[in-house]
Amino acid sequence: MKVLLLGLISLVYSASAVPVNENEPVHWALLVAGSSGWYNYRHQADVCHSYQVLHNHGIPDSHIVVMMYDDIAHNKENKMPGIIINHPNGSDVYAGVPKDYTGEDVTPENFLKVLQGDKSGMAGIGSGKVIESGPNDNVFVYFSDHGATDLIGFPSAELMETDLKQALENMSKQDKFKKFVFYLEACESGSMFNNFKIKDLYVTTASAPDESSYACYFDEKLGTYLGDVYSVRWMEDSDKANFNTETLLKQFKAIRRETNTSHVEKYGDLSIDRDTLGEYQGSGSKFNNVQVVDLADKPLGAVPSPEVPMAILHHQLMAAKDPRQRNEILQKIVQLGQAQQKMMSVLQSTVSILLDGDLVDKVMSRQGVQVTNWDCYKTSVRYFSDRCFPFRENDFALSLMYILANLCERQEVSTDMILSSFDKHCK
Predict the structure, then answer these.
(1) How far is CA 59 from the centre of its chain?
(2) Angle 229-240/248-258 helices, nearest 10 degrees?
(3) Count of domains for the chain
(4) DSSP 3-state assignment of 317?
(5) Rounded CA gap, 16 and 65, in Å?
(6) 252 FRET partner, CA 20 to 30 A, in 5, 164, 352, 407?
């Protein structure tokens, strides 16, 4: 009897995600955390929570692809081994999450292959699962990580706006979706989509093109931030929403209203926001019990994403009672501050060498530039990370990449001149 019941439940799941009518859209989802390290706990927590939202609304694992480094649940810093939470006193969101691509397999190249359904290109890598969507299918992508001007981060590389745009245009031309919804959590995330529009593609971003996104919910026990403001707002809304009636527009308005730290934006084909959540995040009915928590009065304790490592150290300092331990933390704070000052100093020196007068101040100011010189920008960003300050260890450095975007747009400045300056100042 128990076996029969489990079989019936399985059939219900399958029927909800793969319609009997082949002309009805099928749900496909790609969930990505683009960072690693304990202090970036929140990104994998976000993605694990997003999986639970989709899974609990009937999308089968065969149609959900998850990419995350997977170094958090069993991290030596984790005082709740094997468990990840996304809000204070939250339930475990790690249980059951597919480990399709982990560790060094989480790369921009693999992301683009998975997204475009390149099964042969992913053969022998991770689970090999890709988004096998067709012209009648709806695709949902959620990405959580660090970002900068016209780029989003992965553990050891960056994905540029121009490469993402090309992939999405290819999918559109090849009829790889009926409709496509992309939720993006990253600093300056608006810069990834503010320069193009693809039919039937709808996007919301955590921030405008020239501002940070924000981390939230610092946990004293775990010593890290559990989530990001934009991300927890959309998922906490989805946890309690009626997917049959709530529209993307209603969710967007709720997220924007409750995210007072950055400007949540939307781009692309805005007619799609009249569609219901159930058309992208799963069917209208919940198949499992979902822990719905009212966190309206819970302080976010939000901090800009680039400031998270420093904020964590300050939390540690306030909690430390042993004088020796306090001195060690103070030393780390000083070292991190000096490193951040050095990053700015290298870029300031580079700009000052290559330009004169008012142009220096103009390039050093955050002015929301649109990158056009992609060869220069890609090369300079990667060289700055490889030669000067690895982004994997210095997230703050990403927040300064607008300077290189501005510098590369100056016709009198060549890529070689920028790289030579880095060679001089980053010994």
Answers:
(1) 21
(2) 130
(3) 2
(4) helix
(5) 18
(6) 164
Between strands 138-144 and 179-185, the pairing is: parallel
Please report whether residue 341 resides in a domain.
yes
- Alpha-carbon span 355 to 359, nearest angstrom: 6
Nearest CA among 246, 278, 277, 288 for reference residue 17: 278
Enclosing H/E stretch for 421: helix 415-425
Q: Which amino acid is at 246?
A: E
Residue 285 has pLDDT above 90, yes or no: no
The residue range of the domain holding 197 is: 9-305
Mean pLDDT of 64-93: 96
State whether 284 and 358 are in the same domain. no
HEC assignment per residue over 3-48 = HHHHHHHHHHHHHHHCCCCCCCCCEEEEEEECCCCHHHHHHHHHHH
Listed in order, strand segments (DSSP E) in 34-156 are 64-67, 138-144, 147-148, 151-154
pLDDT digits (tens, 9 = 90+) for 227-284: 999 999 999 999 999 999 999 999 999 999 999 899 999 999 999 999 999 999 998 7
Task: Please report which helix (H) or strand (E) contains residue 162, including its range.
Answer: helix 161-173
Residues belonging to the active site: 146, 187
Q: Where are the alpha helices (DSSP H) in 278-365?
A: 308-319, 323-354, 358-364
Whether 176 is in a domain gets the answer yes
- Token pair, residue 219, equals 């946990």
pLDDT at residue 366 greater than cutoff 90 = no
